[in-house]
Amino acid sequence: MEELIPLISELGFPIVVTLFLLHRIEAKLDVVVNSIQSLPEKLKESE
Q1: Which of 3, 19, 38, 39 has the smallest set of CB atoms within 10 Å of its CB?
Q2: Cα angle at 18 between 12 and 19, to 5 degrees?
Q3: pLDDT tens-digit profile of 6-37?
């Protein structure tokens, strides 16, 4: 938490919040990409 205070003072609160949210959503986006990439295989299996 202490490392966030210098970032906020240097970059600004909105930028720090944006970077934090982008970092958190990255893992969720990886799951979505993997699901989309495996979709054609699953569709072939269901036919």
Answers
A1: 3
A2: 90
A3: 877 888 888 888 988 998 899 899 999 999 99
Contacts of 4 (CB under 8 A, 6+ apart): 16
For residues 30 and 38, the answer to whether their CB atoms sit within 8 Å is: no
- If one counts every other C-beta atom within 10 angstroms of the C-beta of residue 7, the result is 14
Length of the chain: 47
* Cβ proximity of 16 and 3 under 8 Å: no
30 within 8 A of 21, measured Cβ to Cβ: no
